[in-house]
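Per your request, structure below.
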């Protein structure tokens, strides 16, 4: 099978809202993070086996400032202040990729805003 997709609007959201007012998202919408550090989206994902996996996050950032996020896997920081640079418009979506280590079975992946601007608008993650 190809990469597994997990929609942000189906994940656990702390300090954010599901919205659909900027076109180009997949699924039913995207998550608009509240504009503060610590707002997060947490996914529960399944891995067939333990080991490295490619995590792809699809996002938009219509501001002129970065919206870095801390990526935590099973409670351990996997990527600190991963950059989510401006995409030019809230309707322009792009992807950011990072390698993470997964356990066999269920894993939690949290993407938490690292700065006061909050996170970007997050459409989905994919694991491959
Ligand atoms: C605007 C935009 C939102 C976005 C927000 C932000 O309000 O419409 O989709 O999340 O800016 O700066 O985070």
């Amino acid at each position: 099978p190809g990469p597994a997709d997990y929609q942000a609007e189906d994940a656990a959201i702390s300090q954010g809202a599901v919205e659909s007012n900027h076109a180009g998202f997949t699924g039913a919408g995207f998550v608009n993070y509240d504009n503060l550090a610590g707002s997060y989206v947490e996914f529960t994902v399944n891995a067939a086996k333990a080991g490295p996996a490619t995590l792809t996050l699809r996002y938009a950032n219509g501001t002129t400032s970065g919206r870095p996020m801390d990526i935590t896997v099973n409670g351990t920081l996997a990527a600190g202040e991963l950059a989510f640079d401006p995409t030019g418009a809230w309707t322009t979506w792009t992807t950011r990729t990072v390698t993470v280590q997964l356990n066999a079975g269920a894993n939690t992946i949290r993407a938490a805003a690292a700065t006061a601007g909050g996170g970007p608008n997050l459409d989905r993650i994919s694991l491959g």
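The two ends are 9 Å apart (CA to CA).

Regards,
D.
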